[in-house]
């Protein structure tokens, strides 16, 4: 270990498909909703609707109580084994990891706790007291734009007030976070999305890869940062 200062001051990390190998929201829909949830997902992937509308309409199809859904998630899906040591390394290096999830959200903290990862900031969507089928509180949304549920652009931009930000993700809801981050780690769907947007990225498989890169990087590319987020949607 060198005594060199870390290349970034924050790391914004997606949850579904990233910290957990499976997309837990999709797994819940697969198990507790009729197949129509996938048609809504395709509307989102084609850019016809934002993630907020997508999530709300998909979750409305769910049967099962919040507790049943939560038990299903925690019992079946462990988090990526390299994540807990990564968090430990980041904290020792003075880097603040933040979880940014635009999924159903309620299972994120219980799943992290089950894996012994405590005290992380988790910014996500929160089902209303009646359960996810009844709707969500979007406490991490953009104040004007209604495109996404949780605004990853805003999370990255706020983190950038403290210095350069790394973004780690894999999917369609990571697009706008990636556009505004200083260095992007991408797998699964995200490399293709980054290529289309002109966002440079580093391929990764486990959080060990992300740590190795962050330890060896001498500079970060800096954000693409378009003047307005391409997902900008006004009601
Ligand atoms: Mg994801």
**Averaged pLDDT, please?**
96
Topology-level CATH name:
Rossmann fold
Strand content: 5-15%
Query: Any guess at the CATH architecture?
Result: 3-Layer(aba) Sandwich
What coarse outline follows from CA principal-axis ratios? globular
- Based on CA atoms alone, the radius of gyration comes out at 17 Å
Q: Tell me the span between the first and last alpha carbons.
A: 50 Å
Q: Structural class per helix/strand content?
A: alpha/beta
List the secondary-structure elements in sequence, H or E: EHHHHHEHEEEHEHEHEH
For the biggest β-sheet, the strand order reads 3-2-1-6-7-8
DSSP summary, beta strand count: 8
* Biggest pleated sheet: 6 strands, parallel
The share of residues in helices is 25-40%
The total domain count is 1
Give a structural overview.
The protein is α/β, with parallel strands linked by helices. The chain has one domain: HAD superfamily/HAD-like (Rossmann fold, 3-Layer(aba) Sandwich), CATH 3.40.50. 38% of the residues lie in helices and 11% in strands. The protein contains 10 helices and 8 strands. The protein has a 6-stranded parallel beta sheet with strand order 3-2-1-6-7-8. Strands 4-5 form a two-stranded antiparallel ribbon. Helix 9 links the parallel strand 7 and strand 8 (202-203). Helix 2 (36-45) runs antiparallel to helix 3. It starts with 9 loop residues before the first strand and ends in a 19-residue tail after the last helix. The mean pLDDT is 96. Bound molecules: magnesium ion. Magnesium ion is lined by residues 14, 16-18, 23, 170-171, 173. Magnesium ion (MG) is lined by residues 14, 16-18, 23, 170-171, 173.
């Amino acid at each position: 270990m060198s005594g060199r200062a870390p290349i970034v001051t924050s790391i914004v990390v997606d949850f579904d498909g990233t910290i957990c190998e499976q997309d837990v929201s999709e797994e819940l829909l697969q198990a507790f909703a009729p197949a129509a949830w996938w048609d809504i997902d395709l509307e989102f992937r084609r850019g016809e609707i934002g993630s907020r509308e997508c999530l709300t309409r998909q979750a409305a199809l769910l049967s099962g109580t919040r507790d049943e859904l939560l038990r299903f998630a925690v019992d079946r899906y462990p988090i990526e084994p390299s994540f807990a040591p990564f968090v430990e390394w980041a904290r020792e290096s003075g880097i603040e990891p933040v979880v940014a999830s635009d999924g159903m959200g309620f299972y994120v903290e219980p799943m992290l706790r089950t894996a012994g990862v405590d005290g992380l900031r988790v910014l996500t969507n929160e089902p209303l007291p009646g359960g996810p089928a009844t709707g969500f509180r979007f406490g991490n949304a953009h104040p004007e734009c209604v495109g996404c549920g949780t605004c990853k652009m805003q999370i990255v931009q706020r983190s950038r007030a403290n210095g350069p930000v790394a973004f780690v993700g894999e999917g369609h809801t990571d697009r706008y976070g990636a556009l505004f981050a200083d260095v992007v780690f991408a797998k699964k769907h995200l490399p293709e999305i980054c290529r289309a947007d002109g966002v440079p990225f580093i391929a990764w498989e486990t959080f060990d890869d992300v740590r190795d890169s962050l330890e060896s990087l001498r500079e970060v590319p800096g954000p693409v940062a378009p003047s307005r987020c391409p997902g900008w949607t006004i009601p």
